[in-house]
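Quick look at the format.
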Amino acid sequence: MRKIVFMRFGPPIPIPQVSAALRPHIANSESAYVFSMPGGVLSIFDTESTNEQITADVKPTGAMFFVFPFNANATSLPEPIMERLGAATTTAPEAETELTIDDVLQKVHDQGMGSLTPAEKTILERGA
């Protein structure tokens, strides 16, 4: 499970076709946050889907958007949004220490090197 940011450009109102395309990718409604922004809508949610899967489902709607992994330590989202996400963005330390080299490599494949935490980078360095 990972948290992603989905930014759709256009009117800052829900668009039913985009909402319907995203719905299967949202792990649960408690993990989803939606913020109206000038020039669009920002959604942050937990998902098992890859960015490519989300893109493939939303692209046919014609919406202009981008998708990227959420990283609470490296984000520049406005403070009110970060405060609202506070409880949902924490990660238990035990989860990071139980990762295997295969888990880290899969994350690199799915999300890229920039998505790795310092602990995951250490696992990768030790495994190489």
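Next, a different chain entirely:
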Amino acid sequence: MKADKARARNKETLFALLETLGVTQISVQFDGYGDSGQIEHVEVHSGDSVVEFPDPTVRFTRIDGDGSAVEQSLEDALDSR
């Protein structure tokens, strides 16, 4: 399926970027559950330290559209994937 291939490529892209940036862990706090939940807070870690959220853009394959590429901030990419 095209969507499965796009998800796999997007995952590889995201993890490669995080490794390049030295990110070793991301902690995400949710509020709610199921379809009614939302992300409240994201912490980025490098080793044992919490660091500022990196601000690069990342290029993903659009999954819910025509398969075109879309650029978004790393924070938006984590929120939407």
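Residues 2-20 form the longest helix (19 residues).

See the schema section for token definitions.
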